[in-house]
């Protein structure tokens, strides 16, 4: 074992920080493979918010080493007929309910490029953990299905064993708002608010590539406006509204040294426009 | 070292998420054994709440591999004459103040089955960390006693070195409310509220074994009532009060896609009855 | 690899618990060295609060094994000309913005004792992660500079490669209030409030060494007063204001089994005096 590359498993859930459900999942993982490296991405995804979960996975997981196993549990349909899927995107491996959580990651791929051999329905009950006499819990598939399956994959289980192929048409997507460019204007919206209160939009660095950064450009959010697009928050004085291209290559609005969310009283869904 | 099984140490405390006290304990553990795998179960146990700590340990720790060392620090009596104990239940190892934190775990055992050889008073000061010239801190035994002792155990220290045996009569228990069945009625109460706002009761799956699950059964919580017992939250429509047998084999009450705690305005201690 | 000592990297940030930015940093670390042991110290440092970050680092990091790499990201000046520094104090290694975060740790050293060879400006862009085509993000140096540099150090990178020496005069300090003794009185202040609501002051155990602990000593905080200095919280009855010498060898004020912060309505900066 000592020379093999360690296997990393990450967890992204809406269980809440400090939830004992996270501890139980870690126990279930380590019971199968005590050598795993487990990394928490976030347990603060808003409850049942598949959209925010999809963004979190899209922003955080591509930074991990190739082959990392990412488990995502934002799962309002747990215990119903919704599937659990295994998928691979950009050399990262995912186990998640088939409810749209992987939409952003799948949308990064070329259309039609998803190999059905590497998108499976995790339906092989032999791999599940019958922790209760009555079988797996119907309220906690994270502990009883996703964790033991991920741990078995970490030990070399062939993905062919997971269950049948899932076609791209079986793969559930959620609608995601996209920013639109019309002439010298880009219309987008706030899609995420980070813990600093920064407002992260769906306007991409790519869309802004030929947009001037100087005082000819105006960024509006609700009825607030700021002039220019900057590279760093601290290029403007404290308490100023500033537009920057953030670390995820999206336009974001921040109040320097304070919370734009609170100061502007806005949130996810608020319209943002860039005009020049 | 590379072929030995990794030793896992878990932490359950009321220090609060993000408390630097957690970081200090991890440093103290790793200073003795840098190869430890440290897992956070929860640092969000309500301050000084031994009852909630006992439930958390009971629900989360049995999922870990045999031999895992679990440290629990909910310790209002720190620095007084209360003992620190080492105990083993179901192949899991525990270090905790002797204040009732291990009550639920001990209650799972057969009466009289606890071997005093594996319940010790951690009184051997040679094993403590004299981090200060004046000796161990009297306000932080987690860092100065429990962490170094656990780390030494992980390196193979014999439990006979920890200190004298503790008899079962020395073992401190807290009173825990038990649900009672009278005829065709079970009377219990809410004993825990999870981060989703689900109300977890002390009514067990075992007590419900021969209770019908159909519309003949009524579950009351405070002055709210729901009909039937389900297996999954999503078997009922959003915003409905639903009773399910949860992942810890206890009856729980949930509002589908919302917080029962907030919607019903109830919490730990609220009476719950099942009648049919 | 299996016989080498594992390298531990700790993280202290103001990103907020559950921030996906923490996950991204861990991915960036593990992508360079998948064998790292990553430990979270705190992600709850108040946003942009360099002073609280400095205290957290000073209290938690000295407990780690020698050679541990500590990354600290409380970085309001990210993307501007502020430097990123590498420094060593008491056999611990640090990577942080040069903005005062390491003040407390540096102040523990003998004046003039800091070897400029082990304080470097992390300016060698070859070591940075050009995650974007445009180079490193100007809003997230934690992910794109500090994490990859730390991971490369963990693999044996020579600190001479990091960048030029930093003199002690280049090292940024923040002013820290010190308690003053005048006759039979010590005047200090609250410098930190922990998650229990305990008020931690800048009055040190050393300053209290010859101060009586009996009823002749009076501790004042705002317009509240308590008599005597104790060793453990539980030496006084519940709901009592008590002064103890805490686990960091500083005087602290606590309400037994409750929050002194809330009960007294005070916080960081409130004056505390000891008189006898």
Compact overview of the structure:
3 copies of one chain form a homotrimer. The first copy, chain A, is α+β, with helices and mostly antiparallel strands.
Protein model, in words:
Chain A has 5 helices and 14 strands. Chain A has helices at 20-32, 50-60, 103-107, 141-154, 260-264, and strands at 8-13, 37-42, 69-73, 84-89, 92-97, 120-121, 180-182, 185-193, 199-204, 218-221, 224-227, 241-245, 250-255, 271-275. In chain A, the strands form 2 sheets. In chain A, strands 7, 8, 9, 10, 11, 12, 13 and 14 form an 8-stranded antiparallel sheet that branches. A 6-stranded mixed sheet of chain A has the order 2-1-3-5-4-6, sandwiched between helices. In chain A, a hairpin with a 4-residue loop joins β12 (241-245) and β13. The model of chain A has no long low-confidence stretch (mean pLDDT 92). The A-B interface holds A 1-2, 15-24, 26-28, 30-31, 34-35, 38, 47-48, 76-80, 131-132, 134, 137-140, 143-144 and B 2-3, 5-6, 8, 10, 12, 17, 37, 39-45, 56, 59-65, 68, 194-196, 205, 231-235, 244, 246-247, 249, 257, 259.
């Amino acid at each position: 074992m000592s020379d093999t590359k360690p296997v990393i498993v990450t967890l992204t859930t809406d269980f809440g920080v400090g939830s004992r459900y996270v501890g139980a999942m870690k126990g279930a993982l380590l019971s199968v493979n005590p050598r795993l490296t487990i990394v928490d991405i976030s347990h603060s995804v808003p409850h049942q918010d598949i959209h925010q979960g999809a963004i979190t996975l899209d922003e955080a997981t591509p930074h991990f080493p190739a082959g990392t196993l990412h488990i995502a549990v934002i799962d309002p349909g747990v215990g119903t007929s919704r599937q659990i899927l295994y998928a691979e995107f950009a050399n990262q491996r995912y186990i998640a309910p088939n409810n749209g959580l992987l939409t952003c990651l799948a949308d990064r791929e070329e259309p039609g490029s998803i190999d059905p051999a590497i998108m499976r329905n995790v339906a092989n009950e032999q791999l599940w953990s019958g922790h209760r006499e009555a079988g797996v819990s119907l309220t906690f598939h994270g502990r009883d299905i996703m964790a033991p399956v991920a741990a078995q994959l970490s030990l070399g289980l062939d993905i062919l064993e997971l269950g049948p192929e899932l076609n791209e048409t079986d793969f559930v997507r959620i609608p995601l708002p996209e920013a639109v460019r019309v002439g010298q204007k880009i219309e987008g919206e706030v899609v995420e608010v980070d813990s600093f209160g920064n407002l992260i939009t769906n306007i991409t660095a790519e869309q802004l590539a030929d947009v001037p950064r100087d005082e000819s450009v105006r960024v509006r959010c609700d009825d607030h406006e700021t002039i220019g697009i900057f590279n760093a928050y601290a290029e403007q004085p404290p308490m100023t509204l500033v537009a920057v291209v953030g670390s995820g290559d999206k336009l974001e609005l921040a109040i320097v040294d304070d919370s734009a969310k609170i100061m502007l009283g806005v949130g996810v869904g608020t319209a943002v426009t860039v005009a020049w």
